[in-house]
Specification:
Layout lengths: L20 H16 L8 E4 L10 E4 L4 E7 L6 H10 L2 E8 L5 H9 L10 E4 L4 E3 L11 E2 L8 H4 L11 E2 L2 E9 L2 E7 L6 E4 L15 H9 L3 E3 L7
Length: about 240
Amino acid sequence: MSTDDFPDDVDGFRTAGKESWEHLWPKLELERRRRTQTEPFFHGEYRFERKVADRVPDCAVIGGDVNRWIEFVAGSDQPYRKKTREALRLGFVIHWVFHTDHAEQKGTARDALTPELHGPFSFGEYNPDTGTLDVGDPVTFKNFRFPVESMEEFEPRELLGYRRGMARIDRVDYGYDLGMFAVAGVQRRILANAYGTEFCAVAPGQSIADATWGFPTRDGLERLIETNNLTRLGPVRRD
């Protein structure tokens, strides 16, 4: 495929510093397919190399059916599990797409996401030599279990980065809506104050005005984390 089909402003697609053609190609190809509406393409606004909280996706697609976070892997190590959890927490589904010459890294990625990743699932793959681009299946809350592993999950000041992340979390009353969780197997939406010292658990269909602040306690949440009885079920509610 001729590079004449790619955008003129290539620099807008590059990571900071030097980037291999192997890693740049799929971003340019994804943009070409967006313009020509050739599968795979998605409806929504494409943002290449733009920050989302403290991470920079290779491409984020905002809007459409869901928000998508797309990562291309061309040989370098990746924090697969950490980045997957951050994308889900922020309200994205995430696609991991591997250069065909580095297909062995699919095994590394699957090992990193196991045992939380479950059900039928395939990673994406691309090949600049043949013009192939397959983004595979996204990781979502439906096929990835998200166990809570630290109290940072309930500290709005830290949750989305920059220590100002709470400014982008939906505020309800005097608390911040941290999203839906399974609390010892019971579904609850958890709100926290700015410092993550006081909490409120809201049952499905319950009015927040009727919920009681002070339950669960911080000690109670810590015990649930220690015993692996606390799981995130959905993203932070963002303002």
